[in-house]
Design a protein that fits this description.
- One of its GO terms (cellular component) is nucleus.
- The protein is α+β, with helices and mostly antiparallel strands.
- It has 12 helices and 17 strands.
- Helix 6 packs antiparallel against helix 10 and helix 9 crosses helix 10.
- The relative contact order is 0.13.
- Bound molecules: adenosine-5'-triphosphate.
Length: 449
């Protein structure tokens, strides 16, 4: 007979789409059930789950007062005094400018059996998730890349650094979502997948009655508002929980190691020091690694254990401070980094970018190399990068190209054909995108054109 500990106290089967139920405890996540209303007086009706992170769950909700749909980020109780609210307030865009940071609409506190939770009411965005192949994913154009740099320039203009730049923290604005009625959303998305949870001993009040799967916002938009395919992307940067005002004490860097700047990655992996200092220059490196991944849906560095070596290969140098570390972790096969080796690696990268249909691959490589400097002092600022020749010909309010589809699922094809969108000139294209196979070889991947 199975014992309770085998199930970690839960009578359920763990699935990847759900937040870990152990997060629901005193000081932890807020138990939510679909259809409930939050706010005082109640104002936001929860419609669907949009996602979850290490410290929060995020829900689509209908705002009864402003009659629009919004995103509610409900922060776990123990983290709810964090500075994300202050950061978002500092980063409100002036009315005259297109926002580049996700916009805060309201904030309040909500009490549950697990404590007091901060609730951040934000515009809904479609996060660019590289690892969920079923979703609609836009091709990242030169204009979209420029917008990600503009986001960093804006954050810097407020004296701040982000500290958690990775592809999952970028999204595209989807104002189309705001206008649907609750019933229309439920009808269009279909019955949400839920997972009943039952804890065998803890207080039932700590848990929601079920966990909800994430709503597929891409498929929803394609069936409910396919016209969103016809407009340029408007990028937003998300998750300001780790941002700080430079000059004050930085919080612990949160960036996943494969996206972290060398000064952070080296401290964490070689020195076991999780409190490395970081600033806006670290964001520039992380953004380079991130836009590489956004542009070709494949990270430049794959493995945490080899990330420092790969950094040295791509930058063509060995920093003096890293030599001691190399005594215990020598380069594989004795290949020592140097400028010629780095040039060769980037040449191959450029060829790969060409196969991925990236605009001006040589220019894109030059931009990345400017940003990826091991020495933070050598990295240009975001404002300097906005003037990089790669962006020549793009103007401040230039919409850029129409987004195209990648990794099209049946759902997308169905939506496209039902709406007749495939007949719209220039809206979609079928192209071959190389894709990384299991063994690291590039395979072909057919896409709508
Ligand atoms: N405004 C939004 N609109 C739609 N989805 C959102 C929005 N904000 C966040 N999400 C989704 O919720 C997920 C969790 O959000 P976020 O990353 O801000 O949470 P977190 O708890 O601070 O997590 P972590 O620090 O682990 O990234 C995101 O990955 C994204 O998928």
């Amino acid at each position: 007979m199975s014992t309770e500990s085998e199930y970690d106290g839960f009578m359920y089967c763990e699935l990847p789409d759900y937040e870990p139920p152990s997060g629901y405890a005193l000081g932890g996540l807020c138990p939510i059930r679909l259809g409930c209303e939050l706010g005082s007086p109640p104002r936001y009706r929860v419609i669907a789950k949009l996602g979850y992170g290490a410290y929060s769950t995020v829900w689509l909700a209908h705002d009864r007062v402003d009659k629009r749909n919004v995103a509610l980020k409900i922060v776990e109780a123990r983290t709810s005094s964090s500075n994300e609210l202050d950061n978002l307030q500092r980063l409100q865009a002036p009315d005259t400018e297109e926002p580049r940071v996700v916009q805060l609409l309201d904030a309040f506190e909500h009490t549950s059996p697990n404590g007091r939770h901060q609730v951040l009411v934000m515009e809904p965005v479609y996060p660019i998730d590289l690892f969920w192949f079923k979703d609609f994913r836009p091709v990242i154009t030169r204009d979209a890349l420029r917008q990600t740099i503009a986001a960093l320039a804006f954050i810097r203009s407020r004296g701040m650094a982000h500290g958690d730049i990775h592809p999952g923290n970028f999204g595209m604005a989807v104002p189309e979502v705001e206008r649907f009625s609750v019933v229309d959303i439920w009808n269009l998305t279909g019955r949400p997948k839920v997972q009943v949870i039952l804890h065998t001993s803890h207080s039932l009040g700590s848990f929601p009655p079920y966990l909800c799967s994430k709503m597929d916002l891409g498929a929803f938009l394609l069936s409910g508002a396919p016209e969103f395919m016809q407009r340029p992307l408007s990028m937003r940067i998300l998750d300001l929980g780790n941002a700080y005002v430079v000059g004050e004490c930085p919080p612990r860097a949160n960036t996943p190691i494969i996206y972290a700047a060398p000064e952070v990655a080296f401290a964490c992996t070689a020195l076991n020091d999780l409190d490395a200092t970081w600033d806006q220059r670290s964001d520039i490196w992380s953004l380079a690694v991130c836009i590489y991944a956004l542009a070709c849906y494949h990270p430049i560095f794959k493995f945490t254990y080899s990330v420092l070596h790969e950094m040295m290969y791509y930058c063509g140098e060995v920093p003096d401070a890293w030599r001691e570390y190399l005594r215990s972790e020598p380069f594989p096969d004795g290949i020592v980094p140097g400028p010629a080796h780095a040039d060769g690696l980037w040449k191959k990268t450029e060829q790969y970018f060409s196969r991925c249909h990236i605009e001006n691959p040589a220019g894109f490589v030059r931009l990345l190399r400017r940003m990826m400097q091991l020495d933070p002092a050598k990295r240009p600022t975001a404002v300097e990068l906005l003037r990089d020749p790669y962006f020549d010909g793009l103007h401040e309010h230039d919409g850029g190209d129409v987004p195209l589809l990648r990794d099209v699922s049946n759902v997308v094809l169905r939506a496209v054909y039902l709406t007749g969108l495939h007949k719209a000139r220039g809206a979609l294209r079928l192209v071959d995108i190389p894709k990384c196979g299991e063994d690291g070889d590039w395979q072909s991947n057919t896409v709508l054109e």
